[in-house]
Structure formats: structure tokens, C-alpha cells
Amino acid sequence: MENKACNCKLHPQSMCPAFGGLRVLMRIEGAQVCMVADQGCLYGLTFVSHFYAARRSIISPELMNIQISGGTMIDDLRNTIETIAANPAVRFIPVVSTCVAETAGIVEELLPKRVGNAEVLLVRLPAFQIRTHPEAKDVAVSSLLRRFGAFGEPRKEQSLVVLGEIFPVDAMMIGGILQKIGVKSLITLPGGDMDDYVQAGRAEACAVLHPFYERTASLFESAGIKIIGGNPVGANATGQWIERIGEALDLDPEKVKQVADEERQKAREVMAGFASRMHGSVIVAGYEGNELPLVRLLLEAGLDVPYASTSVSRMPLGEEDHRLLTMLGTEVRYRKYLEDDQAAVLEHQPDLVIGTTSLDSFAKELGIPSIYYTNNISARPVFFASGAASVLGMIAGLIEKKEVYVRMKEYFKPTV
Asked: Where are the alpha helices (DSSP H) in 249-335?
């Protein structure tokens, strides 16, 4: 049967938004999530919380029709919060409500703000309001900062918040480089320590790595904290990112320029080392919200990226990437559908697809090498020269194996 992309646009385009919020909330030390949802939500989100988030359990009141329709839901919820707070190890109870109509409308004033040693915070993550799980991370982080951030206290000099879900090795690398230019205090958010959210309110500036953190960036900005856009991906953007931080924090210009030039050159050398292998076209189609910096790296390394898509909307913090990518010939699709991505694969016949699992399956049936964006890109460093080396090495190897995929397609072709 011939592969054709359909136009029905009925496939899910992102994981449940509550999943993104859980990734933030469940990784905080001393936190125990209390979820207010029906049993279907609880089952699915318990699975992903163990598999993807933090290998920790969710506690929830038993919400059956009798509790919801009988009006005892708030009482059951308050009792559950008190039971959780009885554990002395619990210092924070995020109460997460999802898009179940009865639970989405919980009145915050009916919940306690503190029980025993535990702070209680309602975090609303309904799918009818929050379109994707990346944007739910923004909701969770901004909710934590609004409640706990020390915005009214004196600023710490040369202090910076780096905002964007990154891995420990990224944080260590960023910290080491920023220390060279004179940054005295660095906090990475989302973080695993509640004190990070408290102290973030005292920072001088915030470097926003991912464009979907709009609510959080707005909160910082309204408190007088400078916002720095961009991220250290590829040679050009890496140097510019370091220089912007130096300017925002009023650091020694000569030292900043020296470190920026060093890191810019390291990234260029990495890309030059892959120059002979960076031929062909790649389609990037994810739902993490951080796809455009990767596209920028691939273009800078010499690859053709005719099409890129993401589940988040076009946002001001990502406008710089958007302008550059479209100027270089990449069609950028926001709030995409699987069917959009399939049509792009059929049109461009790329040498590699970096996409969702559904798109990868579709591409492999066409004999095109394909990998899952989330597990292969979001699960590895992409910043600075070392990140470029990791990503480009993997991509070069996959493109070089294109003939293997073609042979596999021929081998499994049905015989008449």
C-alpha cells in the first residue's frame, strides 16, 4: 500500500499538558504531588511520572462519581492533603488539577496554604487552557515563583537565572563558562531545590533558553529583572549569548569578549571537523518547544533543513530564531499536526527525520532514517562546542546509514 499523508488532523500533537508540569513539580526535593483528577488521568500520569518524570508516586483522593456529584470533593481533598502533610519528610504539596470539568474549577481559597511543615500550592494544568506539555512547565515554574520568589529582597550582584529544562552536565558546563566571565551566582530553573525558586527572585538577570517560558519571563520582567534571549547553540549564537549576559550584568567587557571568542572558535572547530560529513537534508519535527535552536545548529553546520515544526505557538522569545531560519529557507510550522509533518516528508524526501514516534514510523516505511526527537536530542547536551560535537556526530552517522534503510525497505517489500 502506498504511503500517503492524510488531512484529517485528528492525531494527538503533544503529551498531556499535566505531564510537563509534573516533570517540574515532582523533581523538587521534599515535594509530594497531590493530583485532583479522575481515575483515567491518574492512571496515565502515574505511569509517565515514573517513566519520564522522577520515578515517584502521585497521591490522589479517590474521586468517583459519588464524590464529585455529592459535593464532598473539597473535603476529601483537604483530608488527603492533611494525610500527606503528616509525613515529616514532605515540605511541599503541589495540588495539581487537570482538565476534568469538576476538578479544574477548584477554588484555591478553599485549600490551606500550609499544613504542618508543608507548603500547599494549587497548580492548574487543564488541557483546554494549556495546549502543550512544554507550556505547562512554564505554568508550573511561574506558579512556584509567584508564591515563593523573594522578589522584594535586595538583588544579588552578578547573579543570573538560566531558565530552561536542561540536564546536569549542561548546568555544570554553563556554570563553568559563566564563572569565567564573572558571574558570581547561578540558578538553573526548573530546579530540584525549593530555595532555587526563592533566590531566583533576587537575581539581576534571567537567560531564557526556551521560548515557551513566557509567563515566567514576564514575571521576572515585571519585577525589574533583565531578560536575555537566545542560547549557546552553534558558534555564532554561543558567542552572542555570552556577550549578552556580560552586558546585562555589567561584567568586564574585555574578559567577556575573550571568553565569547574562545567558545565561538571551539564551536567552529567542531563544525569544521564534521564539514565533510554534513551533506544532505534533515526534517526536524518535535513537540518539546526547543526545536528551532537545533535547526539553527544544523544549518550552521552545512545541512539543509527545508522544514521544521513544533507544537508550541510562535512566541516573542523565539522570534530571533524564526527570522534567521526562514531567511535561510526553512519553513517553520507552529502548532503543527502530524499530518503536516507527513506531508513535508513526502514533499522533501529528506535524508534524515528527527521527529515524533508517529512520524518516525511513517518515514521508516519510506526507507528514510528516523530518530525520536525527545529521546535522542532532548536527552543529550546541545550547548557549546561539546554539545555540537555530540549532536553532529550522531546525525552524521545516521545520514551515512541511509542506504541501510533503503535496503531494509526493499527486503521487507511484499512479494506478489
From this structure: 253-273, 291-300, 319-327
